[in-house]
Amino acid sequence: MHTPLILLNGEVKDAILIAGIESLRKGASAADVAEQVARDVEDDIDEHSVGFSGLPNILGEVELDAAFMEGESLSAGAVAAVKGFRHPISIARQVMERLPHVLLAGEGAERFADEIGAERGDLLTDSAREIWRKRIADCGLTINDIERAANRQSSIVNRQLIEIATRVLAYREGSDTMNVMVRDARGHLVVAVTTSGIAWKYPGRVGDSPVVGAGLYADDRYGAAACMGLGEITMRQGSSLRAVMLMQMGWTMDEAGRAVLRDMLPICRDATRHWTPAGDGPFPRSAWVRLLMLDRHGNAGGYCTHDGSTYKVQTVDESRPRTLVCEWVREDE
Ligand code: GLY
Fold this sequence. Notes:
Blueprint: E1 5-9, H1 14-25, H2 30-42, E2 64-70, E3 75-82, H3 88-98, E4 103-105, H4 106-115, H5 126-138, H6 143-150, H7 161-169, E5 178-183, E6 189-195, E7 216-219, E8 223-229, H8 231-237, H9 239-248, H10 253-275, E9 289-295, E10 300-304, E11 310-315, E12 322-325, E13 327-328
Parallel strand pairs: 3-4, 10-13
Antiparallel strand pairs: 1-5, 1-11, 2-3, 2-6, 5-6, 7-8, 8-9, 9-10, 11-12
Bound molecules: glycine (GLY).
Glycine binds at residues 175, 177, 195, 197-198, 207-209, 228-231.
């Protein structure tokens, strides 16, 4: 008998985690609980980096990425750059269960979502639209500038969408991708990742969240890992698979997590060339990553390229979630 538990982002409302734990207590599978918890976060109007109320791309459209992976069979399903659907995590799980594919993107993913009867929805809330409008204004731009560039009406090079997106992204918000990691009573590990990606992204940009091996990985025999932060970094490293591979090689979770983060730091430094205004320091919020991990015994850990990131853990034996601070892995370690 294994102690069932849930590990996820520190920002998630306790009620969502506690509801998931209640389902585990009743004997639900890790897969069903991971999907349930991720759906609840997707519905949370206060969560601006996931699903409904997510921050949009540079054109003001909410584009979603999600993935689902089971550590028992190494089965996985994912969707990328999906618009207009309320629960991308459920579409990702259905890709895994119904198709001989792992990843569907854009229009194909939306066609599939309609075929399986996934719930449609208008995801851009008034508050998310207002944050978008304000950020554009902060950069000395108007919605009209964006529309002209999007419709290719602008002949002025510095009003192309490439230039506009790059300028606005330099001042972007964080990307608080949702990582949900669940272990059930049979010891099976499931990871669900869902996100609206980085705010103000160029249309069609896909991050690490739907990329198996980068944004998530699960293997019952060794453990699981999932990432939050700038996907352009973890996609260059294969961070989640790398973390699980190190545990397969006999490293402890702590050794593996620290090693992955240390190896990531040069990529973070390189990424800052593209992502930060000059003088913003070596690892500003725009170029950071956090790795959450579970080992096969159910130990949970969090590792981060900056200070103060938190995660929550609750087992079925606990009445409340515990909030823990990620290990800050620095270059000089
Ligand atoms: N980690 C989420 C993203 O980069 O889109």
